[in-house]
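Q: Convert this sequence to C-alpha cells.
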Amino acid sequence: EKLLPAKVSSLNGHAVEMASAGGGHCVAVTAAGFLYSWGKGLVLGHEGNSDCLLPRLVSPHLFGHERVSTAAAGRNHTLAVTQGGRVFSWGLGGEGRLGHGDESLQVLPTLLRVQPQMWFGRFRRLPPNHALAFAMLSHPRLG
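A:
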C-alpha cells in the first residue's frame, strides 16, 4: 500500500484525460480514446478474469473501435462512454447495476441498449454504493 500519491509510470507516454478509482480497480482514459484498467480481475474488461497489477489496455474492438471519452469505476462494475455516445458496462450485475435487464456477470464491455433518441451527458462520481440515473423525455439526455 502507498500512503502518498505516486506516478503510474506504466502510463508514461500516454496523455491521460481522466481516471476513476472503484472498490478494487481503477480505469484511465487517454487523449487518444483508449481505456486502461487495473486491479481486481472481474471488473477490468479484459479477456479472462485475472487481476492486473499494472494498467492494461481494454481492447478497442470491444467498443467497436470507437474512442472512449469517459469511464467510471464503481465498487464492482465499470462503465464507459464512447465519443459516439454509446454506453458500455461490465462487472457484477447484481441489483441491475449494469443496466442490461438482468443480474448477470459481464466480464467484457457490453453495449447498453437504449432508445435511439437518448443521449448521455456527464457522469459525476457519487459516494460508494450509490447510483443515480434518470431520463428526461423533453430533452434527449440521460442524467
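The two ends are 35 Å apart (CA to CA).
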